[in-house]
């Protein structure tokens, strides 16, 4: 059996959490990531018959029965993952009943998957129903995106449109736009269900005055989506209080979308 600490998926989790921490997005225990793994690949590192303990999730993830995820731990700091992955990450499998997570590795100093597991697993189910390639769900508190929540209307058409205006490539990177939820109590099945509903339509969902969710087929795509929103939000925050002299016009966004061949939300433009 190979050493799990050398597994590429553990390495990816270490790198991305360290990177996000350095960007200032994941203060304290802020943020969480879940990454669906290939069962055969995990079997190279772990005895899949060895369940360390079981954890009640409090919701039914029927469509994910048997699926294995590496997930950041609740209350654990992104800052610390790189030095102690086994304490700060866990590998779980959704048990036959759909409501139990079987711990196969990790959380070795106690603990459980992120408190946002409902939003993560429900989002995985929603994304997989529209994109069978989806593997990663990421939640974080990016500074400028969050700042923008306080000074910009939390309307998904208007919010997306403003972001698209801030960097030429935004409409190409996230042509499907950004879903927006109002402030809601986090860590609940209700916010999980609301997020998953948006995830049927969007790969990015803003949680009003809290942070953002991203979903994608791998770590790069998912991180890249959030990173691009955050860059656009930063430009917005640097310019919102200044007179606007220039802007990217809607007709130019159409040119971009057509040139790069992306299927964009036409109803989010004012044509
Ligand atoms: P966890 O530490 O439970 O992952 O929660 C962090 C967070 O960002 C809550 O939204
Ligand atoms: Zn959060």
What is the fold's blueprint, element by element?
Layout: H1 8-22, E1 32-37, H2 39-43, E2 53-56, E3 68-72, H3 78-81, H4 85-88, E4 89-94, E5 100-106, H5 117-130, E6 136-140, H6 143-151, H7 156-166, H8 170-173, E7 179-181, H9 189-199, E8 204-207, E9 211-216, H10 219-239, H11 250-259
Parallel strand pairs: 7-8
Antiparallel strand pairs: 1-3, 1-6, 2-5, 3-4, 4-5, 6-9, 8-9
Bound molecules: 1,3-dihydroxyacetonephosphate (13P) and zinc ion.
Zinc ion binds next to loops.
Keywords summarizing the entry:
single chain; 271 residues; alpha+beta; L-fuculose-1-phosphate Aldolase; 2 domains; 9-stranded mixed β-sheet; 40% helix; binds 1,3-dihydroxyacetonephosphate; binds zinc ion
**For this structure, what is the CATH homologous superfamily of the largest domain?**
Class II aldolase/adducin N-terminal domain
Structure ligands: 1,3-dihydroxyacetonephosphate, zinc ion
Low-confidence stretches: none
Shape: elongated
Kindly report the average pLDDT value: 98
What percentage of the residues does DSSP assign to strands (E)? 15-25%
Roughly how many Å apart are the termini? 59 Å
| Gross CATH architecture of the largest domain | 3-Layer(aba) Sandwich
**SSE order in H/E notation?**
HEHEEHHEEHEHHHEHEEHH
Largest sheet: 9 strands, mixed
């Amino acid at each position: 059996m190979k050493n799990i600490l050398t597994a590429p998926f553990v390495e990816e989790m270490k790198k991305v959490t360290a990177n996000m921490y350095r960007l200032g997005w994941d203060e304290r225990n802020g943020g969480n990531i879940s990454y669906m793994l290939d069962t055969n690949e995990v079997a190279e590192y772990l005895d899949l018959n060895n369940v360390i303990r079981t954890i009640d999730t409090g919701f039914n993830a029927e469509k994910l029965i048997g699926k294995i995820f590496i997930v950041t731990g609740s209350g654990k700091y992104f800052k610390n993952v790189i030095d102690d992955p086994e304490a700060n990450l866990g590998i779980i499998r959704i048990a036959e009943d759909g409501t139990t997570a079987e711990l196969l590795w990790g959380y070795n100093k106690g603990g459980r998957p992120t408190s946002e597991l409902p939003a993560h697993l429900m989002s995985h189910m929603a994304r997989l129903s529209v994109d069978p390639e989806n593997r990663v769900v990421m939640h974080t508190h990016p500074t400028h995106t969050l700042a923008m929540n306080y000074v910009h209307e939390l309307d998904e058409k208007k919010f997306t449109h403003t972001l698209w205006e801030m960097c030429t490539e935004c409409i190409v990177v996230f042509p499907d736009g950004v879903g927006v939820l109002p402030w809601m109590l986090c860590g609940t099945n209700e916010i999980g269900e609301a997020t998953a509903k948006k995830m049927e339509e969007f790969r990015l969902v803003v949680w009003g005055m809290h942070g953002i969710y991203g979903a994608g087929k791998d770590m790069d795509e998912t991180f890249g989506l959030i990173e691009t929103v955050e860059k656009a939000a930063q430009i917005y925050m640097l310019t919102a209080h200044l007179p606007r002299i220039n802007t990217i016009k809607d007709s130019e966004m159409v040119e971009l979308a057509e040139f790069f061949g992306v299927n964009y939300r036409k109803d989010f433009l004012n044509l």
